[in-house]
Structures are given as structure tokens and as C-alpha cells.
Request: fold
Amino acid sequence: MTSWFLLLLVFGWSSEDGPAPGVLLCGPQNLTLSGFAQSLLVTWEDHPSCSALRNPLVYHLTVSV
Reply:
């Protein structure tokens, strides 16, 4: 159950109404989620358009238990 909530949270957070003119649409892709006992491992790749950014991307991940 927590896995589905986390997936919805990440996809809901990364989707927007669309970029403003001149803004690249950046976000996670190929997201995988695995868990064992009380541990969760989330991995993803950044969209290729993200490599054009000058500043590093920062993702905030919130897990509610």
C-alpha cells in the first residue's frame, strides 16, 4: 500500500500543467520502487532535457507512514 502511495506522490508531484515558455520540462522517468522490511529504495533517471540545466536538480521525497 505504501508503495502505491509513494508512486502516486512522485508522479503527482512531478506532473504540472505544462512548462512556461522557455522553461524545460524536467522530471523523473523510469522510476522503480522496491522495498524490504522497513526500507524503501526509489531509483529513477532524469529526463534528457534536464542535462541542459545549469543548476543541479533537487527532488524532495516525502513518505507518510
